[in-house]
Structures are given as structure tokens and as C-alpha cells.
Amino acid sequence: MTRKLVAEAIGTAILVFFGCGSAVIAGGDIGFTGISLAFGLAIVAAAYGLGAISGAHLNPAVSLGMVTAGRMGMGEFVNYAIAQIAGAVTGAAILLLIATGKPDFVLATNGLGQNGFGPGYLGEYTLLAALVFEFVATFIFVTVILGATGPGAAPGFAGLAIGLTLAAIHLVGINVTGVSVNPARSIGPAVFVGGKAIADLWVFIVAPLAGGALAGVLHASGLTRADG
Fold first, then answer.
1. Are 182 and 165 spatial neighbours (Cβ–Cβ below 8 Å)?
2. What is the CATH number of the domain that holds 122?
3. What 3-state DSSP class applies to 168?
4. Taxonomically, which superkingdom (predicted)?
5. Is residue 55 packed enough to be buried (19+ CB in 10 Å), middle (13-18) or exposed (0-12)?
6. What does pTM read for this prediction?
7. Per residue in 25-55, pLDDT tens?
């Protein structure tokens, strides 16, 4: 179990460092498309590098989906979630340390790739839009993960399928919420940014967990499972 938790922490740190880092350090040059690819490629890297150890969930919503799908126990889920959040905070801390090396970096202005919605945040989408997007996108994401790692899936391609799906979700949703679909990914930057990032955080915990849980329930029922 220790090896699994270390792998989850490192993998989630990789996701936050590369994904949020692409927005903070290079966002002005690579745009939304580049940021989307960075998140997707980070998942691919972690999945192939660490997936054999822990399954590379890197996301409490994914782990909860595994619970409701019958692939993981609640006790293991709690341990995974704690490791994932610790990894996300570590990744955000490393990113902050690097970003502050630029003389004109101001945390309150530049941020750390935190999620949000409403006035002053990217497309200024409403709370309802943020909740619906995060719920639906996480449902899709976890459904793909369960299918790509389940019976009948093409061996060796899960990491690529999952990473490309995350990139596609970002291409659609960055302007809406910055895209969470992952409570740990949202918690990491919010811890350091504070303010509105903390106030909005509940959305990026509740909606992804609900979407992930539903994906697991439908998978367990056989409706979205190849051998169902």
C-alpha cells in the first residue's frame, strides 16, 4: 500500500506541475490548446510511468468511481484521496517556487492555474454552468477510464485514451471553469491562492465526485461495460 500511495502522490504532483504550470508559466505563448495538451500529456506520462504500481488514478473522483464500480474498497479510497491531495499541494508548491523566480510574478494576479467561475474568471460562466460542466465532464472522463482499463479493452492503450480524453475535456471547458474534473487538482493551487479560489472550491469537489460516482454505478450495472 505504501508504494501505491507514493505513486499516487507523485503522479498527482506531476499532473498539477505540468498542467497548471503550462498555464502559469507558458499560457500566454501556448494558449488554451497548449494547456489542454499539457494536462493530457501529464496523464499519459503518469499512467505509463506509475500506472503499474497504483493504477494512476491521480484523482479522488476516479478513485470514487472505482469504489462505486466495485473495483476498490472505501478504506483504500480514503488513503488514495489523501495521497492525491498531498501530491497536488506538493505540485502546486513546486510550481509556486518556480513562478516566483520571475520578478513580475504576483500570486494574486497571475494565480496558479486555480479553478473558478463567475465574474472576473475567464469566460465568467455561471455557477450552474460550472456545476453542469464539471459533473458531465467528470462522468465522461471516469466512464472512459473504467472502460479503457476494464475487460475487453485494447491492452497497452489505456494511458493514451485517458490522456487524450482529458485533453479534449480541457479544449471544451477551460473557458468555463479552467477544468477541474479532479478535486485534488483544484485543492492544490487553491491552498496557496486563497480568496475566491477557496470560496469556489466546493464546486470542484462536489460536482466531480458526483460525476465520478455515477460513472462507477453505471459501469457496475453493466450499462457502460463491455462484458455487461
1. no
2. 1.20.1080.10
3. helix
4. Bacteria
5. buried
6. 0.94
7. 999 999 999 999 999 999 999 999 998 999 8
